[in-house]
Amino acid sequence: MTTLNMEFDLVVIGGGTGGPMAAVKAKEANPRLRVLLIDKANVKRSGAISMGMDGLNNAVIPGHATPEQYVKEITVANDGIVDQEAVMAYAANSFAMIEELDRWGVKFEKDETGDYSVRKVHHLGAYVLPMPEGHHMKRILYRQLKRARVEITNRVVVTRVLTGPDGQVAAVMGFDCRTAELVVIRTKAAVISTGAAGRLGLPSSGYLMGTYENPTNCGDGHAMAFHAGAALANLECFQINPLIKDYNGPACAYVTGPLGGYTANAHGQRFIECDYWSGQMMQEFYNELQSGNGPVFLKLDHLAEETIQEIETILHSNERPSRGRFHEGRGTDYRQKMVEMHISEIGFCSGHSASGIHINARGETSVPGLYAAGDCASVPHNYMLGAFVYGKICGEQAAAFCAETGQAAHDGETEAREAARILAPLQRGDGLTPFQIEYKTRRLVNDYLQPPKVTRKFEIGLQRLAEVREDLGAMSAANPHELMRAMEAHSILDCAEMAARASLFRTESRWGLYHACVDHPERDDANWFCHVLLRRGDSGGMVLEKRAVEPYIVPVDEQERTAYQRLRIAPGTTPAPQAA
Amino acid sequence: MTLATTATQVPVRVDDDKCIAHKGCTVCVDVCPLDVLAIDIVKGKAYMAFDECWYCLPCEQDCPTGAITVDIPYLLR
Fold first, then answer.
1. Spatial separation of the C-alpha atoms in residues A175 and A156, rounded to whole Å
2. Domain containing residue B13
3. DSSP state of A453
4. Which residue from A50, A247, A430 is facing B76, i.e. has the nearest CB?
5. Any chain B CB within 8 A of the CB of A326?
6. CA–CA separation, A317 vs A321, rounded Å?
7. How would you write A153-181 as a 3-class SS string?
8. C-alpha distances in angstroms, A565 versus A7, A289, A519, A562?
């Protein structure tokens, strides 16, 4: 097997949302910088927004919201466990990014006066800006990549970031998913923008790739950050999404809420005041599902015909356009029937919750030269616009870092070991298939790691996952494509173990359903008002530690602090269901 | 140890009469995030080689001749 050797100043791993922005901004900062954007799919259609996005969920636009208000909202939605400086770095740069995207040709909804049409979905403030024509996002990003002369390598799966003698970034390693050729790229810096760890739990349909997240986003970045020695934050704060039952897309209350749609129980009644995705909202959703009032639905059947047509146009052409044909197959017409919803399998995704590779307000991880942006990084509730803003921050910071840094040398033995790990499944004539390893890992995640979390179940889960880890040594791949799945199975298993260990460490309940512990049902601010960081210990195992929450820069008063705890509509005050 | 395969109905349908892969077109293969499509060299037509579809639709939307239809996988329907 041959190895392709390359050398760049900066390698951006993942070409979905934050990655292209990081690459473009690094080139803008220094046009002579050698920047490579690498993706295991094709940058033209990769990542969470491969089919575009229907709106901005966290736009901080002057006249509608202030950065301070936004930081407060996100602090409260995360039960206080946030690095406010990092959230502020997003909020303060949010509007400039919207204006830049606008100049690039992204079409945002505007009113008659040309002002942005901001809608309210969050509990406290107004931050949602629709993009009814948002299906063109990837094309716009691709044009910018070409303009900035970013080099692009598609269909290469990155598996590890190799480090130098002082623990700094030295190289990036992976393989071509069509030829299995090994790729070693010497580099001064790297940005990880690999998206969520979305192939952690198993969708109840049993369809392996029927995940909410683009299934390419399987936690490769989380695993490579861990193995490079970087810290990951608050992994016990799982992501769980309210989705269309069986279909892996949102129904979607963010789009329909401002137009009059709402989440309802089987009686067509509202049970939550606010449809913004938070752990507390998911807990109420879960409670309603478990009660006699379930299932839960998205109610649109009371809306006017022209409103429904507008909703269909947006929802059936953006983000997850196949949801239209799913509804058609089930005979669900928004005019007549409420849309049945359910909660998704678990994952890690800071885009909506708070867990990921730990970064500060400059996008830096704890490894020198390593940055992370978007759904895989730890800045909470970042969504698409946060991925863009942090992509920009990471690209600019990495460019500055490269200007002052020499190329570090990595250890040849580590490279050889990784080459052997990658190629092993191809060299085994027979054995367990990647499908079997992945299915079993994810089934164990569902059986033992899904909230409500039970200590004993987590302990058993860890034992069973350790058995699967033994079985990795018997995994075989028949071709380079299967090899990609085999290496992904390694990442998925690493993420499952991280999810379990982080959850066991935090002996309290927090973030609603995301970390609802049966054995520790109460929130315990005295002991657990802190981040939990997970990293690789000297012996290679997972080590956990508490880290103090950074001093607030935007104070939050007591009344505001508990706002997200009061989402449930009190019995007796429920508005009467409206006629269909 | 022998490996068995389980037959399954795949979600991506290709209309061979419309597919122009024999003329060198690889658009659907290029855009698929999961890399599950391939060109049958003998037939000169695109087909779904791996049952790992996310039914995201770039293949269908970007196909220059409208040869592709993506169904919701049976398990979810």
1. 5
2. 8-70
3. B
4. A247
5. yes
6. 5
7. ECCEEEEEEEECCCCCEEEEEEEECCCCC
8. 51, 19, 20, 5
Annotate A285-330 with three-state secondary structure.
HHHHHHCCCCCEEEECCCCCHHHHHHHHHHHCCCCCCCHHHHHHHH
Find where tokens 């959850």 sit. Answer: A503
Confidence category of residue A572, pLDDT binned at 50, 70, 90: low
In a domain, B56, yes or no: yes
Whether residue A192 contacts residue A230, with contact meaning beta carbons closer than 8 Å, is answered with no
Token readout for A31 is: 């046009």
Q: What is the pLDDT of residue A317?
A: 86
Mean pLDDT of A528-554: 97
A215 touches chain B (CB under 8 A): yes
Which pLDDT score is estimated for A580? 35
Pick the closest to residue A167 from A366, A382, A377 (CA basis). Answer: A366
Chain A residue closest in CA terms to B38: A178
pLDDT at A224 over 90: yes
Domain with residue B23: its CATH number is: 3.30.70.20
ipTM > 0.95 (yes/no): yes
Residue B59 in any domain: the answer is yes
**Residue A5: HSE in the Cβ half-sphere, 13 Å Cα cutoff:** 2
Best probe of the B interface among A179, A204, A220, A325, by most B CBs < 10 A, is A325
pLDDT at residue B1, as a whole number: 65
pLDDT at position A570 is 72
Please indicate whether residue B7 or residue A90 has the higher confidence score (pLDDT): A90
Pick from A247-261, A428-442, A519-533, B7-21: least confident: A247-261
Close Cβ partners of A32 (under 8 Å, ≥ 6 residues apart):
none
The residue of chain A nearest to residue B30, with distances taken between CA atoms, is A42
Please name the member of B33, B49, B52 whose beta carbon is closest to the beta carbon of A208. B52
* Average pLDDT over every residue of A206-221: 95
Q: How far apart are the C-alpha atoms of A177 and B26, rounded to whole Å?
A: 17
The C-alpha angle A198, A204, A207, rounded to 5 degrees, equals 70
B61 in a domain, yes or no?
yes
- How far, in Å, CA of B13 to CA of B24, rounded? 19
Number of domains in chain B: 1
- Residue (of A200, A224, A211) closest to A461 by Cα position: A200
Contact B30 A481 (CB under 8 A): no
Give residues with Cβ within 8 angstroms of A416, minimum separation 6. none
What is the per-residue DSSP string for chain B?
----------SEEE-TTT--GGGT--HHHHH-TT--EEEETTTTEEEE-SS------HHHHH-TT--EEEPPPTTT-
Share of chain A above pLDDT 90, in %: 88
Residue A528 CA to residue A526 CA, distance in Å, equals 6
Tokens 């860890």 locate to: A462
Q: Give the tokens for residue A372.
A: 């992370």
Whether residue B23 lies inside any domain: the answer is yes
Q: How many Å apart are CA A171 and CA A7, to the nearest integer?
A: 9
First to last CA, chain B: 35
pLDDT tens-digit readout, A302-357 = 999 999 999 999 899 888 899 999 999 999 999 999 999 999 999 999 999 999 99
